[in-house]
TrEMBL record:
UniProt similarity note: Belongs to the battenin family.
Residue ranges of coiled coil: none
Transport found in the keyword field: yes
Keyword tRNA-binding: no
Protein name listed in UniProt: Protein BTN
Membrane topology listed for this record: Multi-pass membrane protein
Subcellular location: Endomembrane system; Vacuole membrane
Species for this entry: Malassezia globosa (strain ATCC MYA-4612 / CBS 7966) (Dandruff-associated fungus)
Amino acid sequence: MLSIALVDTLFLRLLGIAIASFASGLGEITYLQYSTRYVPQVTTYCVGWFASGTGAAGLVGASAWWIVRPLGVRLGLSLLAFLSFGTAISFFCVLPEPKKMPVSVPSEDESTEALMSLPDQESDHTRLVALSFSDKMKLLKPMLLPYILPLVLVYFAEYTINQGVAPTLLFTVPDPKQHRVLATLIHTLRDYYPLYQLVYQAFVFFSRSYTSVLPLPPIPQSWLWTPAVLQLGLLVLLSTESLFDWFKESIARSMVIVLIAVEGLAGGSSYVSVMSHIGGSDRSSVGPSGDSALSVQEYEFKIGSVGVGDSLGIVLASLVSIPLQVSLCQAQVARGRDLCTRT
């Protein structure tokens, strides 16, 4: 973040963005795989709260940028860069070491206590067991259809909306007499996109937290394609609004914000449900061998592989979003709407 904020060279800024993305993805997979070293109930607890934390990070980040953006990119990003130290503090000072595992499997109600008071004993989890390539392929194939492909589609549609469509969903600055609330938030055309992202991140946080805060069970495996279908529908709906401006003018702004909120709910619930199934719920149904070192390695690989699904969806979305945004803006200009050229 500091390289982006303090350096004027385009190459170094892009390099900083790449390093930040690499560190974020590596940290996510590392923690998720790390969580499989605990017993199933504790893993479920960890995965649920990790998902909630990632949602909170997006919400806090979007809110923080909304607050500091009047300071400018240089000073604003420099201040926010210090938040990154929270990851190191939580990992090295809060999270128990993997070798300190409970001897017996705690009940679901005892997950928190088991996590906070792990006895200092070695267990089978710490023994190194290597999975062969064929073993990994056998584990990967059953996950493609129920888990990985839905995540790929969810994140492809979600980030295509965020990066390619949302920047073109612009309207005139709202009149305080007609839109009292929106008029307090939107003062220029540049305020629309940060507001969309704030709403999106807020509802991602809500949906990623429902298995840990409420707590409620994850979406059943047979229904995991539902968020993917919903996200694709939202992508089509918002793209057509960008192209044809067919929402009624009096409710268009509010309608777009509501749809972006639904987008956040669908994406967050899909993520936390898949991770809960792989990291905890499905693992809890395994027999006595579920505590073996081999089982730990299997679930470590499985949860890491599923994590690649959202990354692949985001990469595909980034390839589509740039030409899509340009095309949507050009189509708007051709129809006499030039708001996208003023931001």
